[in-house]
Amino acid sequence: MSHTLPDSTPWYRQPWPWLLIIPPLGAVIGGIITIVLAIQSPNALVVDDYYKEGLAINQQRHRLDAASAQQLSGLLRSDGNTLTLTLSQAGELREENLTLKFIHATRADLDRSVALTRRADGSFAAPAPALPAGIWYLRLQPADMSWEIRARVQAGERFQTRLSSDEL
Questions:
Q1: Fewer Cβ close by (within 10 Å): the C or N end of the chain?
Q2: Residues of 81-96 as b/e, b for ≥16 C-beta within 10 angstroms?
Q3: Residue 118 burial by Cβ neighbours in a 10 Å radius (0-12, 13-18, 19+)
Q4: Sequence-separated (6 or more) residues with CB below 8 Å from residue 133
């Protein structure tokens, strides 16, 4: 009669306990990583006050209509150092300063605002902001916010785009 002796290796040297421990341990580690990412990442796509945002759409539509009535459009160029804006419209533009907002497509923390100043030749200029490459929405307004023209641009260091009152 042959007797087999029980295996005397400790449990942690056996493969089966580890094969049973690894999947739940991986799930716990994955859950911890997910919680850390959720806490540290900005949640920029969710608007806190969606009702007020909805009401603001009507005001924006009014500004776009005002720009359309003036047949206002513009050509914006960036050489990486300077923004140059040339406006065309049916009437005379009296504003000396305009505000150009650069709105990132997905990250509100990257949004920028630039003050453009009228030059002697009638165009507007300002130092170009450092923009990461990507999709940007541009909104140009005077100080009294009576009109607005827009554009969408794939920005890098250099770009050129036409701003208009058409919806994007």
A1: N
A2: eebbbebeeeeebebe
A3: middle
A4: 154, 155, 156
Amino acid, res. 168: L
| Cβ atoms of 148 and 64 closer than 8 Å | yes
pLDDT, one tens digit per residue, over 152-164 is 988 777 888 898 8
Listed in sequence order, the DSSP H helices in the chain are 15-40, 50-69
Query: What is the pLDDT confidence band of residue 144, given thresholds at 50, 70 and 90?
Result: confident
User: What token pair was written down for 47?
Assistant: 């608007």
Structural contact between residues 138 and 164, judged by C-beta atoms closer than 8 angstroms: no
